[in-house]
Amino acid sequence: MKEKTPSEYSDQIRSMRESGMSYKKISDALGLKFNSVRSYCKLHDLGGVRDFSGPYEDHCLFCGKEIIQNPGRKKKKFCSDECRQKYYVVNPEKINRKAIYQYECLTCGKTFTAYGNSHRKYCSSRCFMTARHGYREYWDKEKREKVWQF
Description:
5 helices
């Protein structure tokens, strides 16, 4: 069976490329190899990043205000920092937290989680002080407060 060549689809490739389609989308749509489409486009001056659509509008996730998006840049989700902060206060479950670490405290052995600090050793300042200085905490009845003791 003869393999399809990009030259057989020259008009389709040109129109798809000029409408802003990527090499991958064109190769999938026409059943051609990715590298064949890319080589054809570069040979016929259709290569490089193509985005003919220009700026387009989208809406803020918090207030719904229109946002003008710039092609070739990361998509904006919010119109301002204020809207972004308010949105994540109202929807904390939508925050993508990647830096959550789980440890075992070196002093008390309790398992704890820490966000953002990959080198934590102690679950609390009390465990840190105990390990570092040998302090003990006790309740002073006369002062009615917790007191640290050597």
